[in-house]
Model the fold of this input.
Amino acid sequence: MSEKKLSSRERIVGSALSLFAEQGITAATTKQIAEKASVNEVTLFRQFGSKQGLLLAVLQEVPIAENMQAALAEITGANDPLKAYGSTSLDLLGQVPELVRSLIGESGHLPLENQQALSSTLQQANQQTISYLQSAQLSVPGLSVEAGAKLLNAMILGHAVMEFSGDGCVLWEKDTDFLQALAVLMSPPSGALALRPPETVRDLSADVVRSLFQKAKKIGPQEYALVYVAFGAGLRAEELAGLLRSHSLSSKTQHLLTVVGPHSRQVPLNRWIMGNRYGSYNKNPLTQWLKSRQDKQPEVFISDKGEPLSVNDIDKLWATMSDIESDIEGAEEAIAISQARQTWCIELLIKGVSPESLSILSGLKIEELEAYTRRAKEKAALEQALSIDQKG
Done:
């Protein structure tokens, strides 16, 4: 089969990325970009308006997060996951050195829309880091996984920018020396990143889940969609923060979510949750929320200013719906967002999904599911005993 012929827009964006990476944003001219794309400048300006409009398209359309996801997937299971991550990140940045240097150096002079797009790109990359650290069961001592990921990326990006700026700005003779120092700085006294403690399983009853849905629906469509995705697909907070519109694929017969990260996967978004149905595959709290949006932001969950929500923002939004003082019937304490995922896991196990299949759907290892499997068996045994008693 012949390869798909690229449109003029795709050729222009690809050419811009190539020249920005080689020469930097300022040095690369629209004439050079047009020539490389085999179009005239009139076509370029007609489609993008200006060089800054073209840069915006590069930031929004180039699959940076997907490329990073693929690269991290290749190092999953590395003996030294922190050094492997640092080395991979430096390799990725090294593929577009002048673009990185000029983006960081000139970011203060970019139009607001471009600054927001750059911020969104960095946040998407950070979500990949969070997923990688969690997949490797790693955390930075004294910091949340999100804060540790930000610190890690800030140091790697700073090192790369200084390297790209010329020999006079280099602090480390070798990248391996920098990575070794990074590992020592970000590790506990024992010399390795801390292993995350296993989760305590605290699944929720059907009545509590139903009450939380009702509470969220009263607050607003985004809150309703957040609760629906959390309980219907079992995503972590960082996966919810990294979810894009393009990751939601719905039809009359199914609704799938694509989860990006070291363990990329597709997850069905269930319409039946704890005995209650929430719409159909193509008309539910998530599709309704996306349909109501007037912005072009690619992220599913956004702030009032249209900026993508971070993991902390997701946690805060969840807290407004689930604290102990809210009117959620049956809740004895504040409900953590992780409990939605736990409830989803246990419900699937009770309904007959095998631990092996759930491992694929959840991204959890089989050994991590042992506590869930035991809890599911406990609930099934209890329901069986109650049914016998009710039959007399």
